[in-house]
Design brief:
single chain, 141 residues, mainly alpha, N-utilizing Substance Protein B Homolog, Chain A, 70% helix, 0% strand, globular
Amino acid sequence: MKKTRSWSRRCAVQSLYQWQLSGGETPTTDLEYLAEEDSRKVNLKYFKQLIEQLTTKTAEIDGLISPALDRQLADVDPVESAILRVGVCELAYHPEIPCRVVINESVELAKVFGAEHGHKYVNSILDKLARQLRATEMKTG
C-alpha cells in the first residue's frame, strides 16, 4: 500500500498543478494521462480522497501554508505550491501517515518535478508546519 500511496500523491500533485494552471476548473480524478501500467500503481481511493480534500478545503489548507512562507503563496512556483498543498493536506487530515513520511515523500516529489533547489524550500516549509500540526509526533521523533 505504501507504494500505491506514493503514486497517489504523485498523481494528486500533477492533477493539482493542472488545476492551478487552468484557473480553477475542478482537478481531474481521471487518470487518463497515466500509462496503463502506471495507473495500476495508484491507490485510486486515496487519490480521489486527496483531490476531494484539496478542493473542498483549499482555503483552509492555504491558510495553514501562508504564514510559513517567505512570500505570497501565489508567488511560489506552481509545482512547489501543489506539493506543499498535498503535503499540508496529509499533515492536517491524515494523522495515520507519519509526518516524516509526508515530508520525505513531498521532498522526493519536489526533486523530481520542482525547481533545482525547490526540494529544500518544500522541506523547510513542511518541517515548520509539521512542528505546529503534529507537535507531539515531532517531539517524540
